[in-house]
Amino acid sequence: MKFILSETLTTEEVLKDFNEEKSNLIPMLQILQTKIGYVTREGVYAIAAKLNVPPAEVYGVATFFAQFKFEPSGKYHILICMGTACHVNGAREVLGAVERELGINEGETTEDGLFTIEEVACLGCCSLAPVMMINKEIHAGLTPTKAIKVIKAIRKEEENES
Questions:
Q1: pLDDT of residue 16
Q2: DSSP 103
Q3: CATH for 4-64, among 1.10.357, 2.60.40, 1.10.10, 3.30.450?
């Protein structure tokens, strides 16, 4: 069965290197998400067809693991650390400021598709707390004001590119 994932990508192309063994379910979900950025309904059905299992089984596995997303993320994926060091140094206030600045809550994406905010348990930068990572770039020693400045700088850069 052929499922269309985007204008240029089909599930056949994404899943071509996998055989029909059920042990490939998680790797299939991972490669699907890597290729298009999230797990689509079409992707769930394609994996189910290839593995000869019900789509509910694929969906059940995908929803069990926090790594799998079912909606596209923004161009700038903001991870805000909530580990102990970040938490006690004001990460919750940083998160609140970012949410207010962007007009969205944690787990959401802005209407323009630019920003997604996600809370994470730990980014491993405890000595730099509180921190947020935006597209693999760490921003450390944050205050709510500093975090907003980072967001505004990205917005300004985006406007200049337009």
A1: 84
A2: T
A3: 1.10.10
